[in-house]
Amino acid sequence: MVAFAAFARTAAALAPRAAVVLGSGLGGAAAAFVERAAVPFGAVPGLVPPSVHGHGGTLAVGEWSGMPALLFRGRVHFYEGHPWEVVTGTVRTAAELGARRLVLTNAAGGINPALAPGSLMAIQGHLKLLGPAAWRGLAAGDGPVRPYAARLIEVMGAHERTGGRELLAGLYAALTGPSYETPAEIRALAACGADAVGMSTALEAEAAAALGLEVAAVSCVTNKAAGIGETALDHAEVLTNAALAVDRLGALLGALIRAPY
């Protein structure tokens, strides 16, 4: 782990207080990030390389909008065959390297009619529908009820209003995947109040909050959920539509990194 030891020394010198996790196809949102050092996930204790296209699989440290930050280019998912300890490895790594704020991003399907492809949604709560294994991640009674920091949701809303936009704060449904949901499942999720659906984020948010990190999360809506849109769902569409929002997302992430700690 020589490569990671050198990376950790660079990170210690920069002292990042924020960490960002970029979801599927969202690498372009880090255009303002100035990299000082990087290491592949496989060289980091507790992390494994992602197998999904659109997840770079590197951990970098540098400056974002002049603020020191950690950047995880991609993540791993339950559907790749990993236990919760591996899925949340980025969270523990961020905390061990000094981060006190975790900003999560994901590509999601839009359930709320107001969320067209290319839209952003601040996550204010989630439905964790990831199966029994996901519930073993935290000891009984330790699970944070509200992992998403209300203060940071307000920061995101204020930032968007400066650009003349309103940012929906909504409910994210986290499912195991890797298959997309059926129209019937989407109707059930809508009845439960879900605004967007994806296959990540919920466990990371809970693990981060349990470690005392301040958490913000943003969904980039890359497609209409099954039965709502008129086109067939595929991962290529996710990556294409993610590119529509990366500039706006990058500016929003900068605002979150700069917000007072």
UniProtKB/TrEMBL annotation:
Q: Which UniProt keywords apply?
A: Glycosyltransferase, Signal, Transferase
Tell me the residue numbers annotated for binding a purine D-ribonucleoside.
E181, N223
Q: Give the signal peptide range.
A: 1-18
Q: Any keyword Signal?
A: yes
Give EC number(s), comma-separated.
Answer: 2.4.2.1
InterPro entries (alphabetical):
Nucleoside_phosphorylase_d (IPR000845), Nucleoside_phosphorylase_sf (IPR035994), Purine_phosphorylase (IPR011268)
Report a single Gene Ontology molecular function. Answer: purine-nucleoside phosphorylase activity
GO cellular component terms listed in the entry, alphabetical order: cytoplasm
Provide the Nucleoside phosphorylase domain boundaries.
18-258
Any single GO BP term: nucleoside metabolic process
Q: Which residues bind phosphate?
A: S24, H55, R75, V76, H77, A107, S200
User: Is Signal given among the entry's keywords?
Assistant: yes
Pathway-wise, it operates in: Purine metabolism; purine nucleoside salvage
Which family would the database say this protein is a member of?
Belongs to the PNP/MTAP phosphorylase family.
The family database entries (NCBIfam families) matched by this protein are listed as: PNPH-PUNA-XAPA, PRK08202.1
Q: What is this protein called?
A: purine-nucleoside phosphorylase
| Origin organism lineage | Bacteria, Pseudomonadati, Planctomycetota, Planctomycetia, Gemmatales
